[in-house]
Amino acid sequence: MFTRKPLTKNRLFIYHMLRRSRLSHSPLSINYLWDAHDVLERLERLSQENGKVGLTALVIKATGDLLSEHPRLNTRLFQGFFRLELVSYHHVSCSTVVARKDSAGEEILLPLVIRNVSQLSVRQIQEQLTHYKTVSLENLEQQTGVAKSKKFPDWLMYWIHRRFRSDPDFTQKQIGSTYAVSALVHRNSGAVAGHTPVIQTSFFPGNIEERVVPYRGEPAIRKMLTFTIVVDHCVVDGSDIYQAGFSLQEKLCSVDYLMAKVDSP
Predict the structure, then answer these.
(1) Model confidence over 190-202: pLDDT tens digits?
(2) Which domains does the chain have, with CATH numbers?
């Protein structure tokens, strides 16, 4: 026995995005395990003292600074009918997702674009994330264009994604992001690595888990963060992603970096 039903508009959009990634890009991922204990402790203290400051906001800020320093990661491949071209962006803007439930009880992922990350502080990024998690779903769908896309016939969704693949002007006007960050950090899940097809440089903070690790020459219980960087291998080489990993670790695992960026760009 089984039940048939068509994909919802939300799942159909995701289907076409993943299909576009599989057909036109070549994802390369590297997984890291970083000691984020001190930064996570400081984030908790900041949240208690002055309102929530979350890890996702810090990751968006740190990755935005990373792409400003490594512009090759801020480049994307577009494929037209008769050409391939690389588009290097002159701004650094992040797309992430907000998980909400619709009126039917389905959990949906709504896109959020945080523009010009280099001009924002961690706290300003957090304010945008908090707004999108608390505003009414109807207003959120209007702000993100999801309400309009729900009215598209299925065939139009297909052609829109073809245009996303081939037309950088259209993509920037409709979406505007240059890279992506997952906002689905979890704790004690046991997950140690991940991989996903992507259409642009993407960052996935994953599981936070306490582990016994060497710390200053002695065994210690520390909060460890699994982290995955995924790039399009058509654009970015392995050496680029390794250098980016070292640079990003220095930011995300540094209390000094956090304190310098929490209230100023």
Answers:
(1) 888 888 888 999 9
(2) 30-261 (3.30.559.10)
